[in-house]
What we know:
The structure holds 2 protein chains of 2 kinds.
Chain A: H1 7-10, H2 13-29, E1 47-48, H3 61-72, E2 83-84, E3 96-101, H4 110-121, E4 125-130, H5 138-150, E5 157-158, E6 186-190, E7 193-199, H6 203-207, H7 223-243, H8 253-265
Parallel strand pairs in A: 1-2, 3-4, 4-7
Antiparallel strand pairs in A: 5-6, 6-7
Helix pairs in contact in A: 3-7
Chain B: E1 15-17, E2 21-22, H1 38-41, E3 50-56, H2 63-81, H3 88-109, E4 113-122, E5 125-131, H4 147-157, H5 159-168, E6 170-176, E7 180-183, H6 201-211, E8 217-224, H7 238-245, E9 251-255, E10 264-271, E11 275-277, E12 282-291, E13 296-304, E14 307-316, E15 322-329, E16 335-342, E17 356-364, E18 368-374, H8 379-390, E19 394-400, H9 423-429, E20 436-440, H10 451-461, E21 465-469, H11 484-488, E22 491-493, E23 500-501, E24 508-509, H12 525-534, E25 541-542, E26 545-547, E27 552-558, E28 565-574, E29 577-582, H13 592-596, H14 602-615, E30 624-628, E31 633-634, E32 640-645, E33 657-664, E34 670-677, E35 683-687, E36 694-702, E37 709-718, H15 731-741, E38 745-747, E39 764-774, H16 779-798
Parallel strand pairs in B: 5-6, 5-8, 8-9, 9-38, 11-17, 18-19, 18-20, 20-21, 21-29, 31-37
Antiparallel strand pairs in B: 1-3, 2-3, 3-4, 4-39, 6-7, 10-12, 12-15, 13-14, 13-16, 16-17, 22-26, 23-25, 24-27, 27-28, 28-29, 30-32, 32-35, 33-34, 33-36, 36-37
Helix pairs in contact in B: 2-3, 3-16, 6-7
Amino acid sequence: MNETFNPITWLTRSRWCLFGAVFLVASLWVPTVAWSMGEYSRMIIPQIRYKGGNYKPRPHAIESLLGQTAKRTSVEVKREARDMDLSDPDLFLYPFIYLAGDSAFPPFPDADLKILRNYLNYGGLLLIDDNSAKANSEFDDSVRKLVGNLFPNIPMQRISKEHSLFRSFYLIHQIGGRANIKPYLDGITIKGRTVLIYSSNDLGGAWSRSKLGHWNYDILAGGRFQRKMAVRLGINIVMYALTLDYKKDMVHLPIILERLRRSNLR
Amino acid sequence: MKFFSGPPDIRKVFNCQITKSFFKQDASGPKGLFALPFLNWFGIDPEFNHWEIQWSLPEYAWIGPLVAVLVLVSVWFFWTSLSRIGSLNKRLVLMTIRAMALMLMLALLLHPQLELKKSRELKNSVAVLLDNSKSLSIKSAETGGTRISQVQKALQENTAFFEQVKEKFQLDTYFVSDHVQSVELQEGNPSYKAEAERTNFTKVLREVQKRYEGKSLKGVLLFSDGADLGQPDEGISVELLETLTHFEVPIHTFQAGSNEGFKDLGIESLQKGDFGFVHQPVRIKVSLIAHAMGSKQISLILKEGDTVLVSKILKISPDKTRYPVELEFTPHKTGKRLYSLSVPLFAGEAIDVNNSKDFQINVIRDRIRVLHLSGRPSWDSRFLREVLIKNPKVDLLSFFILRTLSDDVAAPTAELSLIPFPSNLLFSEYLSSFDLVIFQNFQFAPFIDKKYLLNIKEFVQNGGAFIMVGGELSFQGGGYKNTPVEDLLPVRFESASKSLLEDEFHPALNKRYKYHPILQLEKDSKTNKSAWTTLPPLNGMNLGLIPESNAHVLATFPKQGEPTLYPLLVAGQKGIGRTLLVATDTLWNWNFRSVGKGGSGRYFQKLWKNIIAWVTRDPETHFIQIETDKEKYRVDDKPLVKYRIRREDYNPDPQKALKLVLASLTSKRILQTHKLVTDDRGEGSFRFRSLPEGFYTIRLEDQEPDSKLLREIGFGVFSDHFEFQKPLVNGSLLKKMASKTGGTYHLLGDNVNLDSIKIPNEAVFFESKSKTFALWDNWWSFGMIVFLLSADWWLRRRAGLS
């Protein structure tokens, strides 16, 4: 038989199925190429475990935020929950940590305060999230005592709307979470770097999704738009941790300012 | 001004001196009241020649009248109580005894003390201050002689006056400028020359004041032109005024020279920074002065060697003295650059040295412009960016790829802060304006067209610097195999099949490069070695990199059980540019993780500082180092040159034979040649003798037959012409100094007669010793009272009274 080879006719349905099966198996066999060197290069946000109170009212908050970060940005994440004590020797492998709660908690021991102070002074970032969705909550009271003990000479202040946090990825005009307790974030800035960010609006509640992709908690006031803004704010906080004031470089300013101007006109 | 010293008066305010009496006698021995042998009986030194009784008077004013009333009442009481005694004599005797007893008791209440003192007469002093600053060398238009010759003439013509002063006073002579130097006043003193570099009357008078503490200075004769640059043009500074107020001794001033017919064109002052940046304009401010120059146009010329940098025409008019001028030029070479600024010299000018001025500017490179591209935000890129942005020598432009084409941002562009990546502009037009390009975990496609990679290669070959920092998007992972970037880097890429390693490891330093500038985290080699061992481990690295033969493999990962050393830190040279790769994206462990281990991010910062310095060919990283111990020298300085020779691997080059050549920069003439040898550390130094004013170059050559030049630096030796900045005579200042202190002002002319100067010469004494005795607190005084009262009682009994 002297037939010329025609790839179109040769690729019958059965052969396609066979190739598909071989590719699937092969892909399982071929070792996956490491996506970065060691997990520490990927974004992991440990949640701080503390005694007393409820340290994890939104168990899926961080996983959900990391999922959105991976989906929307070029940041490489490790999408898993990791709970950690401040005294954990591995704390300094993760320059961004998350502290949440919805009830009062006792003051941190001096040793933990010292570690946390060191952590923040030398490059770390702490996001504190009040999940109680109540104004002047018991958690809020405990947080303010904690921050007072942590930085007795630096008061926590409202973070300006001009801060890089609100333009590190998205241009953010509205600040909220699951609740809308305060239309702003508080924070502490040392030598030009914001080292502590405090949200009273239950950001974690707005981020949390189940494994099937459903939102775990209803938004209390602003509906979908508020949740969208809360997710964007979460991504901006991640970007700020990784790029700091990068968006304030002169090369970015003209374009960002023009967009802000147009947005204000609308 | 305090001319006398003695023990401080320890008595309180209410003390009172009743008697003060001097028995004039010289120091040879006592001739007064106390030169009696009974002083010896009391163990008192018979040398005392002055005594004083001191009383302690109560401080309340009403005490005096009260005592007076008490005395009167007592006298009345005594007299009436004795009225029964018939004999007037007896009454008078008793009255006298009682009055004596009363007076004695009152006297004891006042605590009398006898103070014995030893004093000697002092000889009063007169100070002659002769200004010997350089401005005294300026010729007077009237006489044609210098100002200093006028002073010398005045001293010569008044020898008799000074002889008379010498007989009556202690005559001290000083050269004064900005300090005081004691000299002998003698005719034609050969050491009296106008050579001191500046005048400062405030400093001089304060020093004179200090020298005469405890002495009796009665007059000061100041011979000067009054040209003190520290004083305002029309007036007197607050400091000098304050000094004169407290001087308390008349200063008689004698003005040398005058401004009549004074003609001069000169550079009064020049303001410039010590540093300038290469290729950046340097601005200098100049102030010219013109006295009696008429109306003309002059040229102001700024030169570097023989090259004219700036020339400016200036119109001089008779009605204006000062001319501020600004000049700007752009240096194109780094190092200590030597410049000369000049105005023309016209006939009849009083001074020629202020017609040109030499100066030096250390031209350094501009801030290092760094283009930093990060393929994705990560901890490694964040901590590197932080180091770069905090480095004051760096101008940073960074770009992070925040989203890729596959990312779903779920928002329109207007709601994002993202900007398009301007690759065309960066890698075509602006690339040459950067000094360093860093690709950190950055895949060039689709952000940079492949053709621009060739531009990066040319950029490096022409002197630029390039660093690639590891990650999955670097090297083979970034698609750089078989691209111009692979040619640039000091490694070859293997296939991409095993590109990453996730092991935790401590890198091993290559001993061959232990002196490499990049690896110097500490100055001392032992401390440096220990610093590397304290760093936390890294967590992964890029594989498949084969160093080229001429690459500097500075650090590796020696994986256990494998023969290959995985290169971690590799430096290389392409064309005249330098490149470096870091085959990991976990170098940030040496920053934040180090803090967690009780250390700091100091070594991470230092390592990156070293890397940037080396790739951008900072002079500090040159194999041959030569430097002078000072930025610029004065004529009496002895310049010290230090040198250090390193081989290409930065190891010391010991016993290296060198030639040090000193040449004049202006004439190009070789002035000195010295043969030198480096020590075991490849270092050495050489100190020149004092050099005359001028610009010099030092060339370090090897001693091969063709004498290859290794390095050359320049330096300047400057003579201080500060005194000629304001060369005019300041007669008004001399007048004010005289009037403020009660002295007189005189103008030195043809015939100067100093006989009119009157200096007071009253006697003064210097108290050298004193001793105090209480006259009340002893048995004699109390015994006397008891005796008087007893006598009174006995006489009354005898007179028949009880």
